[in-house]
From TrEMBL:
Belongs to the zinc-containing alcohol dehydrogenase family. Quinone oxidoreductase subfamily. The lineage of its organism: Eukaryota, Metazoa, Chordata, Craniata, Vertebrata. Its EC number is 1.3.1.104. Pfam families: ADH_N, ADH_zinc_N. This is Enoyl-[acyl-carrier-protein] reductase, mitochondrial. PANTHER family: ENOYL-[ACYL-CARRIER-PROTEIN] REDUCTASE, MITOCHONDRIAL.
Amino acid sequence: MSPFRTVCLRIAPLCGRSLAAVLFRHFGHRDAKFSHLSQSAGGRSQALLYRSHGEPSSVVRLENVDLPSVGVKDVLVRVMAAPINPSDINMIQGTYSILPDLPAVGGNEGVAQVVEVGPQVKSLKPGDWVIPKDAGLGTWRTEAVLSEDDVISLPTDIPLLSAATLGVNPCTAFRMLTDFEDLKPGDSVIQNAANSGVGQAVIQIAASRGLKTINIVRDRTEFPALSDRLKAIGASHVITEETLRRPEMKELFKMCPRPKLALNGVGGKSATELLRHLQVGGSLVTYGGMAKQPVTVPVSALIFKDVKLRGFWVTKWKKDHSYDGRKFRVMLDELCSLIHEGKLTPPTCTEVPLQDYHRALDAAMQPFTSTKHVLVM
Ligand SMILES: NC(=O)c1ccc[n+]([C@@H]2O[C@H](COP(=O)([O-])OP(=O)(O)OC[C@H]3O[C@@H](n4cnc5c(N)ncnc54)[C@H](OP(=O)(O)O)[C@@H]3O)[C@@H](O)[C@H]2O)c1
């Protein structure tokens, strides 16, 4: 069992058998879509396919696939941009909690433009921008025929990179800042991996709500420039993992209240250090395991601080709210309002043409890059 799965076990309800069964059915449905991709001829599309699990640069290939004709409730979309996220890499490696049947098209998020709609499509029209409602759609391709129900529209007047990167990381940040603690202006939140896509969204959404953020990043020679960049988007404090362990943290808490909420995308020692700084009764929410190390909880944090340990998975949240899309719509509308107001910008991105996918996949797996690689079609 991989260390990543060890982290997952700590949020056991999310990895339980019943959810796996639900997701298996979901992917079964999607693979039906994939198999009809290769059946009939409504045109051709290029897609980044993997036929076996392994290192992305070895197993992912750009292939031509036939498009089916557009069904009565289907839409033909042209994908414009799709990021490479850590979960996309883990899916290809075969180490993620949910895996599609193979062959599969890579990519779980991205923005596409509707080109054609079937006669019974009610919610979309040509020209609309759409993003996937759920994980597993296979966004690394040029065109796709999808069910109207698989996508949700976005305004077309937001930046392309904002749209391409909105559906996963900003939604995760939004929910974690909303659903776990009753945060009021002036309260503080501490997070590691603060330069990640999630981290940059946390900084900006928190700032828009008047919350202070204590942002932890790994040390690097460009730390001053990174710190300035995160402060420019609203970070209150940016410190290194090493500083987090030092006594001078006491000085920081003279300027800023101890956090009610800690957001952990790393695991290992970093998560333990976040716990040490939480307020009594505060919550540590784990959403990622980049260090591939389990979360170790000091006994004192449980006894003397009664901290709450929680997990969050946006895929499960979307699944839980799929019966009634209103909550998802409301969240996207709020996020788009922040974008319109200039309060939520996309993460720092490097755009790479689809044909250069090898370069993009390799670069996306390098540490200390502080940039999100986005495939542009
Ligand atoms: N649970 C959910 O619903 C959910 C939703 C979205 C994302 N996620 C997870 O959240 C995490 C971040 O995703 P993202 O798209 O925001 O990432 P990203 O933009 O690709 O950034 C990756 C981040 O991970 C850090 N990192 C990489 N390796 C590390 C290590 N060994 N130790 C400590 N930090 C390390 C990087 O820091 P450096 O610059 O120092 O390399 C960077 O801050 C991933 O694990 C992803 O799967 C979970």
